[in-house]
Amino acid sequence: GNSVTQMEGPVTLSEEAFLTINCTYTATGYPSLFWYVQYPGEGLQLLLKATKADDKGSNKGFEATYRKETTSFHLEKGSVQVSDSAVYFCALSQKAGNTGKLIFGQGTTLQVKP
Amino acid sequence: KAGVTQTPRYLIKTRGQQVTLSCSPISGHRSVSWYQQTPGQGLQFLFEYFSETQRNKGNFPGRFSGRQFSNSRSEMNVSTLELGDSALYLCASSLEPGVYEQYFGPGTRLTVT
Questions:
Q1: How distant is the Cα of A74 from the closest Cα of chain B, in angstroms?
Q2: Tens digit of pLDDT for each residue in B12-56?
Q3: Fewer CB within 10 Å, N or C, chain B?
Q4: Quick check: helix, strand or coil at residue B91?
Protein backbone atom coordinates (compact mmCIF):
# COMPACT_ATOMS: atom_id res chain seq x y z
CA GLY A 1 0.00 0.00 0.00
CA ASN A 2 0.91 3.66 -0.08
CA SER A 3 3.14 4.99 2.68
CA VAL A 4 5.40 7.87 3.65
CA THR A 5 8.56 7.63 5.74
CA GLN A 6 10.23 10.62 7.36
CA MET A 7 13.50 10.93 9.17
CA GLU A 8 13.30 10.49 12.91
CA GLY A 9 13.32 13.57 15.06
CA PRO A 10 13.71 15.68 16.95
CA VAL A 11 16.03 17.80 14.86
CA THR A 12 17.79 20.53 16.81
CA LEU A 13 19.55 23.32 14.93
CA SER A 14 21.04 26.70 15.69
CA GLU A 15 19.52 29.77 14.08
CA GLU A 16 20.73 30.32 10.48
CA ALA A 17 21.73 26.66 10.07
CA PHE A 18 20.82 24.64 6.96
CA LEU A 19 17.83 22.33 7.30
CA THR A 20 17.12 19.03 5.59
CA ILE A 21 14.25 16.75 6.56
CA ASN A 22 14.22 13.54 4.56
CA CYS A 23 11.01 12.07 3.17
CA THR A 24 10.57 9.00 1.00
CA TYR A 25 7.36 7.47 -0.25
CA THR A 26 5.91 4.26 -1.61
CA ALA A 27 3.01 4.61 -3.99
CA THR A 28 1.61 3.33 -7.25
CA GLY A 29 1.54 5.74 -10.11
CA TYR A 30 2.31 9.41 -9.68
CA PRO A 31 1.02 10.82 -6.41
CA SER A 32 0.95 14.45 -5.41
CA LEU A 33 3.38 15.27 -2.59
CA PHE A 34 3.03 17.80 0.21
CA TRP A 35 4.77 19.25 3.23
CA TYR A 36 2.58 20.44 6.08
CA VAL A 37 3.68 22.25 9.23
CA GLN A 38 2.01 22.16 12.63
CA TYR A 39 2.76 24.79 15.26
CA PRO A 40 1.99 24.01 18.91
CA GLY A 41 -1.73 23.95 19.62
CA GLU A 42 -2.70 24.48 16.00
CA GLY A 43 -3.90 22.49 13.01
CA LEU A 44 -1.86 21.75 9.91
CA GLN A 45 -0.79 24.39 7.42
CA LEU A 46 0.18 23.54 3.87
CA LEU A 47 3.80 24.58 3.41
CA LEU A 48 4.41 23.48 -0.18
CA LYS A 49 3.40 20.91 -2.76
CA ALA A 50 4.47 19.24 -6.00
CA THR A 51 2.19 17.36 -8.32
CA LYS A 52 4.56 15.73 -10.84
CA ALA A 53 8.10 14.46 -11.16
CA ASP A 54 10.85 17.11 -11.06
CA ASP A 55 8.43 19.77 -9.79
CA LYS A 56 9.91 21.99 -7.10
CA GLY A 57 7.59 23.33 -4.44
CA SER A 58 8.70 26.41 -2.51
CA ASN A 59 7.31 28.73 0.14
CA LYS A 60 8.73 30.95 2.90
CA GLY A 61 12.29 29.90 2.07
CA PHE A 62 11.48 26.18 2.19
CA GLU A 63 11.93 24.01 -0.91
CA ALA A 64 11.33 20.39 -1.90
CA THR A 65 11.81 18.65 -5.23
CA TYR A 66 9.71 15.68 -6.40
CA ARG A 67 12.25 12.98 -7.27
CA LYS A 68 10.54 10.00 -8.83
CA GLU A 69 13.75 8.06 -9.40
CA THR A 70 14.51 8.04 -5.68
CA THR A 71 10.84 8.32 -4.54
CA SER A 72 11.83 11.23 -2.34
CA PHE A 73 10.59 14.71 -1.44
CA HIS A 74 13.16 16.11 0.99
CA LEU A 75 12.44 19.45 2.67
CA GLU A 76 15.24 22.04 2.75
CA LYS A 77 15.77 25.56 4.01
CA GLY A 78 18.98 27.50 3.73
CA SER A 79 18.76 29.43 6.99
CA VAL A 80 16.30 28.47 9.73
CA GLN A 81 14.84 30.85 12.28
CA VAL A 82 13.55 30.26 15.79
CA SER A 83 10.03 30.81 14.41
CA ASP A 84 10.46 27.71 12.21
CA SER A 85 10.29 25.50 15.30
CA ALA A 86 7.35 23.18 14.66
CA VAL A 87 6.43 19.66 13.56
CA TYR A 88 6.77 18.99 9.84
CA PHE A 89 4.74 16.34 8.03
CA CYS A 90 5.37 14.88 4.61
CA ALA A 91 2.25 13.55 2.87
CA LEU A 92 1.04 12.08 -0.39
CA SER A 93 -2.27 11.98 -2.19
CA GLN A 94 -3.16 9.67 -5.02
CA LYS A 95 -4.56 11.38 -8.09
CA ALA A 96 -6.42 8.24 -9.17
CA GLY A 97 -9.93 7.89 -7.79
CA ASN A 98 -10.35 11.66 -7.51
CA THR A 99 -9.81 11.59 -3.77
CA GLY A 100 -8.10 14.06 -1.53
CA LYS A 101 -7.17 11.43 1.04
CA LEU A 102 -3.77 12.29 2.50
CA ILE A 103 -1.31 9.70 3.78
CA PHE A 104 1.11 11.25 6.25
CA GLY A 105 4.55 10.44 7.51
CA GLN A 106 5.08 10.28 11.25
CA GLY A 107 6.21 13.89 11.52
CA THR A 108 9.58 15.42 12.36
CA THR A 109 9.95 17.88 15.21
CA LEU A 110 12.27 20.78 14.49
CA GLN A 111 13.67 22.89 17.31
CA VAL A 112 15.70 25.95 16.41
CA LYS A 113 17.80 27.54 19.15
CA PRO A 114 18.87 31.19 19.12
CA LYS B 1 -12.26 34.64 4.01
CA ALA B 2 -12.78 32.73 7.25
CA GLY B 3 -10.84 29.51 7.68
CA VAL B 4 -12.05 26.07 8.66
CA THR B 5 -13.74 26.16 12.04
CA GLN B 6 -14.19 23.24 14.38
CA THR B 7 -16.34 23.04 17.47
CA PRO B 8 -15.86 22.39 20.25
CA ARG B 9 -12.12 22.93 20.59
CA TYR B 10 -11.83 20.79 23.71
CA LEU B 11 -13.98 17.98 24.99
CA ILE B 12 -13.79 15.60 27.93
CA LYS B 13 -15.96 12.48 27.86
CA THR B 14 -16.25 9.28 29.82
CA ARG B 15 -15.78 5.79 28.43
CA GLY B 16 -18.98 4.44 26.90
CA GLN B 17 -20.40 7.85 26.04
CA GLN B 18 -20.79 9.19 22.54
CA VAL B 19 -19.57 12.45 21.06
CA THR B 20 -20.33 14.62 18.04
CA LEU B 21 -17.75 16.95 16.54
CA SER B 22 -18.55 19.69 14.06
CA CYS B 23 -16.65 21.19 11.15
CA SER B 24 -17.52 24.23 9.03
CA PRO B 25 -15.47 24.38 5.83
CA ILE B 26 -14.18 27.47 4.09
CA SER B 27 -16.96 29.20 2.19
CA GLY B 28 -17.29 27.63 -1.26
CA HIS B 29 -15.48 24.45 -0.33
CA ARG B 30 -17.59 21.36 -0.89
CA SER B 31 -15.21 18.60 0.20
CA VAL B 32 -14.50 17.81 3.86
CA SER B 33 -12.11 15.23 5.26
CA TRP B 34 -11.50 14.12 8.83
CA TYR B 35 -8.25 12.90 10.40
CA GLN B 36 -7.34 11.51 13.79
CA GLN B 37 -3.99 12.54 15.29
CA THR B 38 -2.46 10.58 18.18
CA PRO B 39 1.13 10.38 19.46
CA GLY B 40 1.27 6.66 18.76
CA GLN B 41 -0.43 6.36 15.37
CA GLY B 42 0.23 9.81 13.97
CA LEU B 43 -2.22 11.27 11.47
CA GLN B 44 -4.76 8.81 10.14
CA PHE B 45 -7.51 9.38 7.59
CA LEU B 46 -11.06 8.87 8.84
CA PHE B 47 -13.50 9.94 6.10
CA GLU B 48 -13.96 12.14 3.07
CA TYR B 49 -17.26 13.75 2.10
CA PHE B 50 -18.31 15.56 -1.04
CA SER B 51 -21.80 16.74 -1.91
CA GLU B 52 -23.24 15.00 1.16
CA THR B 53 -21.79 11.63 0.08
CA GLN B 54 -19.04 9.69 1.78
CA ARG B 55 -16.43 9.10 -0.92
CA ASN B 56 -13.75 7.41 1.10
CA LYS B 57 -13.37 5.84 4.52
CA GLY B 58 -10.31 4.95 6.51
CA ASN B 59 -9.65 1.82 8.52
CA PHE B 60 -11.64 2.65 11.64
CA PRO B 61 -14.34 0.66 13.42
CA GLY B 62 -18.01 1.28 12.79
CA ARG B 63 -18.22 3.34 16.00
CA PHE B 64 -16.82 6.17 13.92
CA SER B 65 -19.33 7.74 11.57
CA GLY B 66 -19.90 11.02 9.86
CA ARG B 67 -22.13 13.00 7.60
CA GLN B 68 -22.18 16.12 5.51
CA PHE B 69 -25.02 18.57 5.17
CA SER B 70 -26.25 20.47 2.14
CA ASN B 71 -24.31 23.57 3.24
CA SER B 72 -21.11 21.43 3.26
CA ARG B 73 -20.80 21.51 7.03
CA SER B 74 -19.81 18.14 8.43
CA GLU B 75 -20.13 16.26 11.66
CA MET B 76 -18.44 13.16 12.92
CA ASN B 77 -19.73 10.95 15.66
CA VAL B 78 -17.96 8.44 17.85
CA SER B 79 -20.15 6.08 19.86
CA THR B 80 -19.22 3.93 22.85
CA LEU B 81 -16.05 5.88 23.50
CA GLU B 82 -12.87 4.05 24.44
CA LEU B 83 -9.76 5.43 26.13
CA GLY B 84 -7.87 4.97 22.85
CA ASP B 85 -10.18 7.42 21.13
CA SER B 86 -8.45 10.26 22.95
CA ALA B 87 -6.92 12.28 20.14
CA LEU B 88 -6.87 15.51 18.20
CA TYR B 89 -9.53 15.31 15.48
CA LEU B 90 -8.72 17.48 12.49
CA CYS B 91 -11.05 18.55 9.74
CA ALA B 92 -9.85 19.72 6.34
CA SER B 93 -11.75 21.32 3.49
CA SER B 94 -11.06 21.77 -0.21
CA LEU B 95 -12.96 22.96 -3.25
CA GLU B 96 -13.42 19.41 -4.50
CA PRO B 97 -11.74 16.08 -3.84
CA GLY B 98 -8.54 15.39 -5.71
CA VAL B 99 -5.89 17.87 -6.71
CA TYR B 100 -7.14 20.89 -4.83
CA GLU B 101 -5.33 22.04 -1.71
CA GLN B 102 -6.73 21.05 1.64
CA TYR B 103 -7.01 23.56 4.46
CA PHE B 104 -7.06 22.30 8.01
CA GLY B 105 -8.96 23.56 11.01
CA PRO B 106 -7.43 23.90 14.49
CA GLY B 107 -8.86 20.56 15.59
CA THR B 108 -10.96 19.27 18.47
CA ARG B 109 -9.01 17.81 21.37
CA LEU B 110 -11.02 14.85 22.74
CA THR B 111 -10.04 13.33 26.05
CA VAL B 112 -11.75 10.12 27.14
CA THR B 113 -11.50 9.26 30.83
A1: 19
A2: 999 999 999 999 999 999 999 999 999 989 999 999 999 999 998
A3: N
A4: strand
